[in-house]
Structure formats: structure tokens, C-alpha cells
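Subject: sequence -> C-alpha cells, single chain

Hey, anyone have a minute? Need the predicted structure for the following. Not urgent.
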Amino acid sequence: MYYEIHGEGEPLVLLHGAYMSIDGMAPLLGPLASYRKVIAPELQGHGRTADVDRPITYEGMADDTAALLDHLEIERADVVGFSMGAAVGLQVAIRHPARVRKLVGVSTAYAYNGMPPEAIEMFPTITPEMFKGGPMEAEYKRLAPNPDDFENLVWKLKELDTTEFDWSEAVRAMDTPTLIIVGDSDVVRLDHVVELFRMLGGGVMGDLAGLPKSQLGVLPGTSHFMPPGSGVLDRSELMLAMIRPFLEAD
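Reply:
Had a minute. Here:
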């Protein structure tokens, strides 16, 4: 499992999205590393981490992340994840709650139906040919220890993206303070994200009940990834303005 460590301070694990590498998280990595010790792994089959003979699952990647913390002798860390990495972060908090101090989940769902119907309809049509000559394939071939494995990565991620899940019961049992960030035109439905916020103790009248320990941020005019310049990671300044106060609050 390839990983990099940037910066100094309290530990923070930064988890990338599907088809991405550490390099793609640069809009968050550099600024976070200015005040935290950022551990940035590349998850199963991504970037410089070779694939193994098992499916790619959120639970498996969460266990890998916890094992990395064991390897680095880090007892507890904050976790920041984007898209697939946010779902992995959610599973780390569910499966290894003692390892996560605070969680920031960017563009994540707690159940499969949290994605818009058009996304659910699109996922079964994905094939390796759709990536031929594109930047994701090129980045994989540049970094991967086995450059010819890209087609296998696509099939495994297609299986991940077409497998239904529902973590609502486990999310309701979570005690980890969580900041949820989503674009207003993202790959996750806004009503689903609001329900996730409620499950984590949000959606109350703070004037009377007090502020919950979890928070919700919605980025205006923001998609998931496309068109260029409009994706969530293109709004890094807005996200960083939310993330630092959340992490540093008592």
C-alpha cells in the first residue's frame, strides 16, 4: 500500500476518490499539510498501490486504512475523504470508531439510493473503452506498478458502483463528529445528504437545542467532477474554510 506523509502536527488521513491518485487531491493536500501531518494513501488498485485478488469494497479499503494507522503506530487520526474516499472514511468510522477523532466526508452517501437515478442508470454502462486515451487511463499507466491492469480496475469499480448498500443503522450508531460537504449539483442527492446529517444528530434548532457536533456544508454552483472548473475539488478554498474550524473546534 503506497502512502505519503506531508507536513507536521496532529495526524490526518486524506482519502482520494475512484480512479484517482494522491496527486489528484493536491487542492486539499497542500493546504491541510500546512498545519497537520497528512497521511495520504493510495487505495487498492489505485495510483502506485497494486491490486490484490479480492473485490474492491468500501469495507476492505476501510480495513486497509486502519491497518496503515497500525503500521504507522498512529492510535487516532482525523479522516478527510472525497467521493469513494469519503465512503471509505465513513466505513473506517463505523468499523474502527476508536481510530477516528473527526470525519470529513465530501460527496458521500449512506445508502445506494442516495445517488440520483441517472447516475444509477449510468453505472451499468461503464466499460474500459470509455476511458481509452483519457486522463484517468493515462494517469493510471503513469503511476501503476502494473500499467496493464487498468481494465481490471474499471471492472472492479463498476462492480463497486453497481452494488447496493444501506448503512443507515450503522450511521445512526456513530458517535464520531462529522462534517458533511456536498455540491448543490453533486452525485449525491441533497435530500439524502440532509437525512445523513439528521442521522448524525443534525437538523435541530440550535438556538434551543444547542449546536450538534456534526455539521453540513453545501457548495453553491458545484458538480461532482465535470465540467472542468465546476467540481467539488475546484471549490477547495470554500471547503478548507469549513474544514479547519471544524477540526480545531473543541
